[in-house]
Amino acid sequence: MKVAYYAVARGTKPGVYRTWAECEKQVKGFAGARYKKFLNEHEALDFIAANGGKISFRSVGASSTAAAGFVHKKQTLHEVSSTMKDLKRIGSDIAKWQSEGVPVVFTDGACSSNGHHGAKAGIGVFWGDDHPDNVSEPLISGPPTNNRAELSAVITALRTVRLLCDLSSMSLNCHHLGKAV
């Protein structure tokens, strides 16, 4: 028997149900009910989100992490070990670059309720502890989306780099002009 996930986006108690009987109780007699059967829980949750539903119930047997919007992935020891090696290498690279005077910046953007009414987005730019150019602020331009926030954070960092380069260039030119006079 195939596993079924019944998504109720609009009903008495929106949520994911494991049997048609449970689903039917939530939609029968409910004006404007919106529901659909899926073969996996992820698609069921996407359906609810796309149809404006908020999950208030999860049938027994449905994954609590998936219902909370998380995808659970089991990693093998090899995958974890490989990831740890990559992180150590990246950490070493960053330390080397910083010791050579290469600017290192981390950027991030995020959006809660991405793609939905009432979404809020923000950006972060991190140059280092207590750095004066660090930024943590709401997204101020355009509709709030995760992609817009991510790109806005990168653009903010690049504008800072350009400004620093322009100031350095101006300082060099002033220095050369001073010697020429």
From TrEMBL:
The lineage of its organism: Eukaryota, Metazoa, Ecdysozoa, Nematoda, Chromadorea. This is Ribonuclease H. Its cofactor is Mg(2+). Its EC number is 3.1.26.4. Residues 99-181 form the RNase H type-1 domain. It is an enzyme of class 3 (hydrolase). Endonuclease that specifically degrades the RNA of RNA-DNA hybrids. InterPro entries: Ribosomal_bL9/RNase_H1_N, RNase_H, RNase_H1_N, RNase_H1_N_sf, RNaseH-like_sf, RNaseH_domain, RNaseH_sf. The keyword Membrane does not apply. Belongs to the RNase H family. It comes from the Eukaryota.
